[in-house]
Amino acid sequence: MTDPSKDEERALSRDELELVSAARQPGLREMNDRDLADLVTRLRDRRDRARSLAERQRREMRGKAAPAGISPAADNAGTRNKEHYLGAALARAMEERDRRGTEESMSEDKKDDDQHAIAEKALEMRKEADKHAPEHPENTPTPDEGMHSVPNEDIIPSGNIDAEGHRVVVERSRKVR
C-alpha cells in the first residue's frame, strides 16, 4: 500500500484513511472477492455520508438550513475534500471488482438481462391485449360546417341609418374638428 498524501491525512479520519489506503492497487490485487465487496460497501457508505454532510453545510452557509451545531458552517471545503478522496478510492475499488468479473459485477449485468426479458414479456402481453381490444373509431378530425355565427345583439351594427347609432354619426359630422 502506498503512503497517503498530507492532504488525505488532513481530510480523512483514521478509519477512512485505512479504507482509502486499502483501495490502492497493490492491496486491491491481493484482496479476495469477499473483502473487496466489503471494502466497496464501506467506502460507498462513507462517501455518501460525506456527500450529505457537505450538502448540509453548503445549505447552512447559504442560510437555507438551520445550523446543526452552535453556529452555522463557515466552509465545507474539508468535507468536499473528504468526499473527493473517498469517491476516488471507491472508483478504484469498483474498477478492480469489474476487472475481476466477480459475482457482484456480473449480477448487475444479469439484472440488465432480466430487465430486458421483462420488457420483452411486457411487449408481448401488450400486443396480445391489442389483438383482443374492442374496435374504436379513429380519433381524426371530420369535416363539418365549421363555427356557427352567434350575433351579439347588445351592440348596434355600424352603418345602420335607421337605428340608434345614426344619431351619433350625425352629431359627429356637425361638430368642428
Characteristic key phrases:
177 residues, 7 helices, mainly alpha, 64% helix
Structural category = mainly alpha
> Could you give a short account of the major beta sheet?
none
What is the residue-averaged pLDDT? 79
Helix content: 55-70%
Give the SSE order as H and E letters: HHHHHHH
* Separation, N- and C-terminal Cα atoms: 100 Å
Runs in which pLDDT lies below 50 for 5 or more consecutive residues are: none
- The radius of gyration computed from the alpha-carbon positions, rounded to a whole number of angstroms, is 37 Å
The count of DSSP E runs of length 2 or more, i.e. the number of strands, is 0
**Which band does the percent of strand residues land in?**
under 5%
Form type = elongated
Assembly context of the chains: single chain
What's the helix count?
7
What does this structure look like?
By secondary structure, this protein is mainly α. It has a domain of 95 residues. The protein is 64% helix and 0% strand. It is built from seven helices and no strands. The longest helix is centred in the first third of the chain and has 30 residues.
